[in-house]
């Protein structure tokens, strides 16, 4: 759906590019804030299995509403906007509830001694997502543009087909229920964690000068909370500290679907509506086996741990945006040159009778035609390939490693919560883009 979402805003709802970018990233942010809700429901009440089922239904309904909003004959333009926003909100809540549970539920199927197998699972899990993404980003734009409905591009079909496929996926998931290992919910763990942290901070703040110092500030809660809970919270906090720089990676990564797409619209390209996601998904399918078979074993020999792998991924992301900046400079220069040529031709045609221009030295003359349009940009979209290669390499090192690391380092009763914390860094990354785009009024590459 995101493959055509920016173009839906620009071409169907007739929003400008800045508003389209803002709404795109606001939607992405909401998709990654709501996992906290899904994690709390799963770990405290319904369990991961039932949470996935119930919120998948919300997800499907959201897609149906979004599809109806894309039917031109349904109400006014305000009605289309309202239905589109309601649909996007429902999709965000549905996908937010599913996201932390699916990865954690998959990890639950492995015992602790099967760490290598679990790591391979997360690689296959990530490849599966991108295999589906690759297929859908080929099919969705075809449904949008090649299948005409209501006298134009069929966004209603492009949004409706994912809803039908999600129903199929849900049936398949439920069909395998007898084979799954299902850990029961263990109460409102997140609330207990917050209470323990608050109590420890309060106790430490009010301590007398004569009281013995504690090794860790959380140890002040030992008189009220179990040592096991305190130790588990320490584990979670150690992981969360590593999450602090992560939003910057996602602030760069998620601009593939907004500013990189808009950059490509000003280049020589015939299939801009889906190529950015298709490229990313295709490269993931190529890179993951290479990294699993070659790169990660080399990292193991060099004793490079998960945090260093993620840091390397962030470096690749920075290099990707260096490449994107270079492309943007060339695109802007090309457009400016084209515009100057048009101005010169217009000026010549204005000051020469009959739209003819005499060549220096007399003799022959050439006809000049007045033009209003800017000449086509001849910078080919292939120049964007290096930035996608670098970004995808960074994603493989960063995201897959982070998913497995988040699962393995979290206590058994907080697997979904920590997965939600990981996803929350994506939301903050999109907020950074919103602040830069709207607050500072700057154009990103």
From TrEMBL:
InterPro entries: MFS_trans_sf (IPR036259), POT_fam (IPR000109), PTR2_symporter_CS (IPR018456). The chain crosses the membrane at residues 22-41, 53-75, 81-102, 123-143, 155-176, 235-253, 273-295, 316-345, 417-437. It comes from Neogobius melanostomus (round goby). Belongs to the major facilitator superfamily. Proton-dependent oligopeptide transporter (POT/PTR) (TC 2.A.17) family. It comes from the Eukaryota. It is a multi-pass membrane protein. This is Solute carrier family 15 member 2. One of its GO terms (molecular function) is symporter activity.
């Amino acid at each position: 759906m995101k493959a055509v979402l920016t173009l839906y805003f620009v071409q169907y709802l007739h929003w400008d590019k800045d508003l389209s970018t803002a709404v795109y990233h606001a939607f992405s942010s909401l998709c990654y804030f709501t996992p906290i809700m899904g994690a709390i429901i799963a770990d405290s009440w319904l369990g991961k299995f039932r949470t996935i089922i119930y919120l998948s239904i919300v997800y499907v309904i959201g897609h149906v509403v979004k599809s109806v909003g894309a039917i031109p004959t349904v109400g006014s333009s305000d009605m289309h906007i309202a239905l589109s926003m309601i649909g996007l909100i429902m999709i965000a809540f549905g996908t937010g509830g599913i996201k932390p549970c699916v990865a954690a539920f998959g990890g639950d199927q492995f015992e602790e001694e099967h760490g290598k197998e679990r790591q391979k699972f997360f690689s296959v899990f990530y490849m599966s997502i991108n295999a589906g993404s690759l297929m859908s980003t080929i099919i969705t734009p075809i449904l949008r543009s090649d299948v005409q409905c209501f006298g134009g591009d069929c966004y209603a079909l492009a949004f409706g087909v994912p809803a039908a496929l999600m129903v199929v996926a849900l049936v398949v998931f439920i069909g395998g229920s007898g084979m799954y290992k299902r850990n029961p919910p263990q109460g409102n763990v997140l609330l207990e964690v917050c209470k323990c942290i608050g109590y420890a901070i309060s106790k430490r703040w009010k301590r007398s000068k004569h009281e013995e110092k504690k090794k860790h500030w959380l140890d002040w809660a030992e008189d009220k909370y179990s040592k096991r809970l305190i130790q588990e919270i320490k584990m979670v906090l150690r992981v969360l500290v590593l999450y602090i720089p992560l939003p910057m990676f996602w602030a760069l990564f998620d601009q593939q679907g907004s500013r990189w797409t808009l950059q490509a619209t000003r280049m020589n390209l015939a299939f801009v509506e889906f190529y950015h996601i298709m490229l990313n998904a295709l490269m993931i399918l190529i890179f993951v086996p290479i990294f699993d078979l070659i790169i990660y074993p080399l990292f193991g020999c060099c004793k490079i741990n998960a945090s260093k792998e993620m840091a390397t991924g962030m470096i690749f992301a920075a290099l990707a945006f260096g490449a994107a900046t270079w492309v943007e400079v060339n695109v802007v220069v090309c457009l400016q040159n084209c515009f100057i040529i048009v101005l010169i031709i217009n000026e010549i045609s204005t000051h020469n009778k009959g739209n003819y221009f005499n060549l220096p030295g007399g003799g022959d003359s050439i006809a000049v035609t007045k033009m209003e349009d800017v000449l086509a940009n001849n910078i080919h979209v292939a120049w964007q390939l290096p930035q996608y290669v670098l970004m995808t390499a960074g994603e493989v090192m960063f995201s897959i490693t982070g998913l497995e690391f988040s699962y393995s380092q979290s206590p058994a009763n907080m697997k979904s919560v920590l997965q939600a914390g990981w996803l929350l860094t994506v939301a903050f990354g999109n907020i950074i883009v919103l602040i830069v785009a709207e607050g500072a009024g700057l154009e990103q590459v």
